[in-house]
Amino acid sequence: ERFFYVFQSHGLTLLDVVDLMKGYGFSLSSLENNNQVLNLLTRDAIRYVANMFFCSQKWLMGASDDQRDFTYDVNWYKKTYEIATKLISYHRDGFDPEVFFIRRENADFVNAKESKDDGSNNEPIGIFIRLSRAKADGTRFYVYQTGELQRWNYRRYREQLKLLICFCEQANSVVTYSGHELSKKDIDAVFYGRCLPNDVLRQAGQKTWFPRRYVGISGDVLEEADEWADVAAAYTASGLQKILEEYRNKPFQPNFAQ
Fold first, then answer.
1. Residue-by-residue DSSP string for 183-241
2. How do residues 32-76 score in pLDDT, each as one tens digit?
3. Segment 224-250 mean pLDDT
4. Angle at CA 44, nearest 5°, toward 38 and 46?
5. Local confidence band at 204 (pLDDT 50, 70, 90 cut-offs)
6. pTM greater than the 0.85 cutoff
7. Nearest CA to 96 among 175, 190, 186, 6?
């Protein structure tokens, strides 16, 4: 059931399933027989599907209700360099990466910032990385990697996120990015693995916010300008601009150990 659901959730038809899974013996006739489908769902086939959609193998097999696959580390706190190299690699490989910065619908960042780290108004903030994959006919479909969910009221969390926003702003020919607002219910469901990201994020864009207002890369800092000097200094020291310039000038080799 979850095997077919994960394809359907991404807008894929039975013909697409066959095209994408033909290397594992799938055909239209086999899809009409549940026993044949079960026989074709070998560990290698399940691993292939999980890797394609960034979901858990255990979830696909019905052994877990959490669809997240923690093999793919897209945590951003203190890991902006690793995220940046990952995004550059995705661009190099033709996946057209886009970073979705997610916050709560009608989020109040002003009060969250003022409340500091006391937890009274934490305002959740997180990311997804959207990638474009090719079907056999050349058309594309989107898949999402789930990033970590943190809180805006803690200064170090929001400064790290602003570093990533700075990188995305500078990498405009390599990475695109956008800000989206979701209900608290949807944020909890998608970041804690209770639904596939595509189930929620296909509606992203109905309510937006503008991350670039919090950094001064391409204009004035319009929000939280008092923190910009520290963020700018951290960005300069981070090496993010260096790897971006190196990629634009020569073939890129990711260095995740740095």
1. -HHHHHHHHTTSS-HHHHHTTTTSSEE-GGGG--SSS---S-GGGHHHHHHHHHHHTHH
2. 898 999 999 999 999 999 999 999 999 999 999 999 887 766 788
3. 92
4. 55
5. low
6. yes
7. 175
Tokens 């700018």, residue?
Answer: 232
Largest CA distance in the chain: 63
Query: What is the rounded distance in angstroms from the CA atom of residue 39 to the CA atom of residue 62?
Result: 16
Give me 128's structure tokens: 């997804």
* Residue 73 phi, psi dihedral angles, 5° rounding: -85, 105
Tokens of 96: 């057209």
Look at the alpha carbons of 24, 25, 31, 36 in this order and tell me if their dihedral is positive or negative: negative
Residue 112 token pair = 């969250």
Q: Is 174 exposed, middle or buried (0-12, 13-18, 19+ CB in 10 A)?
A: buried
The amino acid present at 144, given as its one-letter code, is Y
Query: What six digits make up the tokens of 153?
Result: 């009221």
Give me the helices (H) in the chain, please.
Answer: 2-9, 14-21, 28-31, 34-40, 43-53, 57-60, 80-92, 109-115, 155-170, 184-191, 197-201, 228-238, 240-249
Residue 17 main-chain phi, psi, to 5 deg = -55, -45
